[in-house]
Amino acid sequence: MNLRLNTLAKMVDENTRLADIGTDHAYLPIELVKEGKINFAIASDIAAGPLQNAKDDIQEAGLQDKIETRLGAGLETIKHEDKIDTVVIAGMGGKLMSQILEDADQNGFKFKNLVLEPNIGEAGVRIWLMNHNYKILDEDLIAEAGHTYELIKAELVKEKASLTEEEIFFGPFILKEKNPVFYQKWQGQLNYYKKLLVNLNKARQKDNERIEQVKRNIELIEGELND
Q1: Strand order in the sheet with 17-21
Q2: In whole angstroms, what is the distance from residue 64 CA to residue 95 CA?
Q3: At how many degrees (to 10) do helices 27-35 and 48-60 cross?
Q4: Residues 206, 200: contact at Cβ < 8 Å?
Q5: Closest among 111, 156, 158 to 136, alpha carbons compared
Q6: Residue 223 and residue 219: Cα distance in Å, rounded?
Q7: Tell me: the pLDDT tens digits for 174-204?
Q8: How far is 36 from 63, CA to CA, in rounded Å?
Q9: What is the distance between the alpha carbons of residues 12 and 106, in angstroms, rounded to a whole number?
Q10: Burial of 45 (0-12, 13-18, 19+ CB in 10 A)
C-alpha cells in the first residue's frame, strides 16, 4: 500500500467493523484484515469494474469470508444489521463526501468513527462533522506523487465540538503541527488565490461575494505562513 492508504489504515481502530466506500482494489480492508487489526469489512463501490477488481484481490488474498463486496452509491450499500462502526471514505471531493454522509444521516445511520480523505473541499467536510456532533480526533497532512492529502479521523460525540474559522480552514491538528507539507501546500494555495483574485477583479460582472471570500482566504493563509 502507498503512504496515503497506510496513513488511513493507522487511523482505523482495532476490532471495528469497517465499511470502505469507493474502495480502491479493497487494498485497505485487505491489509487491515491481514494485519489482524479488523475481522470484518464491506468494500463498496458505485462502479462494477473497480468492484470486480476488489473482488479479485479479496479472493486472491483468500479473505472472501471476512470482506464482502457491495455495488452501489455511497453508504446506500450499508444495512443496519451490518453493525458498521467505522466508515472510510477516501479520494473524492469534500462536497460529494459530505452529501454521502448527509444522505446516510437522513436515513438514520450514525457511525462511531469516520476516517476521511477529501481531495478538495476539506473545510466543508469539517463543517459537516462539526454540525453533526463529530469531534476530530486526529489529522495528517501528507505529500505523495505530487499531491497533498488531508486525512481526518472523527468520532461521534454527544455535544457539538466547535471549531474556529482557522481550524475549519486548515484543520485543528494540521494547524498545531504545521509540518513541512503544510508550508508547501499553503504557499501553493496562496499563489493560486492571488492569481484568482486578479482574474475576479478583471471580470466585467464582478462577483463581490467570491472576491471577499478569496481575500479572506489570502488573509488566513498569510497569517499562518508568517506566524
Answers
A1: 67-71, 40-45, 17-21, 86-92, 113-118, 147-156, 134-144
A2: 32
A3: 20
A4: yes
A5: 156
A6: 6
A7: 999 999 999 999 999 999 999 999 999 999 9
A8: 12
A9: 24
A10: buried
Cell readout for 206 is 464582478
Residue in the structure block whose three cell numbers are 454522509: 101
Is a pLDDT exceeding 90 seen at residue 24? Answer: no
Could you tell me if 78 and 42 are in contact, meaning their C-beta atoms sit under 8 angstroms apart? yes
How many angstroms separate the CA atoms of 128 and 93, rounded?
Answer: 13
CA 65 to chain centre: 27
* Parallel, antiparallel or unpaired: strands 134-144 and 147-156: antiparallel
Residues 6 or more apart whose CB falls under 8 angstroms from that of 135 comprise: 129, 154, 155, 157, 161
Q: How high is the mean pLDDT of the chain?
A: 96
Take residue 145 and report the three cell numbers written for it.
Answer: 506523487
What sections of the chain are H helices per DSSP?
Answer: 3-10, 27-35, 48-60, 94-106, 122-131, 165-170, 172-177, 180-202, 208-225
Residue located via cell numbers 503544510 = 182
Closest CA to 122 of 85, 86, 145, 92: 92
Which residue do the cell numbers 506523487 mark?
A: 145
